Amino acid sequence: MVARSKNAGLASAKAAVPAAKKAAAKVARKSAAQKTTRSGAQMRAHKTREAILRAATRVFSRNGFTDGKIESISSLSGTHDRMIYYYFGSKAQLFVEVLEATYQKMNEAEAGIHIDLDDPVAALTTIVRFVWQYYLDHPEFIPLLNSENLLKGKHIKMSSRASQLSSPAVGILDQVLRSGVAKGLFRDSMAARDLYIQIAALGYFYLSNRYTLSVFLNSDLRGEGELDHWRAFITDVTIRSVMRLPGD
Description:
Elements: H1 2-67, H2 70-77, H3 81-88, H4 91-111, H5 120-137, H6 141-150, H7 168-182, H8 192-216, H9 224-242
Helix pairs in contact: 1-2, 1-4, 1-6, 5-7, 5-8, 5-9, 7-8, 8-9
């Protein structure tokens, strides 16, 4: 009787092993399914958020912050007004994130500039042409900044990332200037920050005012030939502004 009881216990234990494995497998499948569901939801949320940001960039660059309507953004992004408020909280915060993304995109592009510090004149030429071409390739950049400057920087002041979005180009220019000074080519009184403002201003003013200037000057400043001419002009002015003069 005792032997049979032991055998029965062993059989019961053996039968319990597959059952336990099945239960564990079921739990594992459920956990994996939950992770997949969460991952899918996160991916959809990310795509929705990015779609809203892209649409907001287009609407705000075309109409400015004040006239950029939430309804236009939701329609363009294929979402709903409530989704915009869900992800961003307010129209103002959405504009803040559009500005952050705009600066971040330019910073990433600037960080990818390849220059040869052994040839500071060529390096400076590369930077000038990069900034000019970036303005042309990203027509949303200038209108967005114009809109924010009309509001006296109200929204960028709200950004917790503003201090992290300073242009890498200033640091790159500093290296180029130091190289030029060391080689006796550049004067040592030019600050990288001032040079960056000069380069940006020469391109920014032309492109943001080309429509009115074309009328006042009776010359179409929007044509490809005129744009190429101004790029060459900016480059020449910038190089001349840093070159060491006789007697320096």
